[in-house]
Amino acid sequence: MERFLRYSLSHNRPIRLMLMTTEGQLRQVKAVVEALCADSVSLYILRPPQRLTVRMEQLLAADYVRGDEGQD
Q1: Residues 32-64: pLDDT tens digits?
Q2: Residue 69: what pLDDT?
Q3: Each residue of 18-31: pLDDT tens digit?
Q4: Helices (H), 1-72
């Protein structure tokens, strides 16, 4: 998963993330990583446009967005 986060941060490209909200709900988002720390990640979510900081343990999965596969 860290590979996708670093890819988004270094290339300023969106990735698809599955995360657990603070309310305990699953949420899938397309987002660009703005900052990556050891225990948290700052995201710019594309729809609806918003900035969000989540703890690393809230991130469940990461993947390329459609059409961006293999651009590493």
Answers
A1: 999 999 999 999 999 999 999 999 999 999 999
A2: 66
A3: 999 989 999 999 99
A4: 2-11
- Residues with Cβ within 8 Å of 15's Cβ and at least 6 positions away in sequence, in order, are 4, 5, 7, 8, 30, 31, 32, 33, 62, 63, 64, 65, 68
Residue ranges covered by each domain of the chain? 2-64
Q: How many CA atoms lie within 13 A of 10 on its CB side?
A: 8
Out of 2.30.30.520, 3.40.5.60, 2.40.50.100, 3.90.850.10, the CATH code matching 2-64 is 2.30.30.520
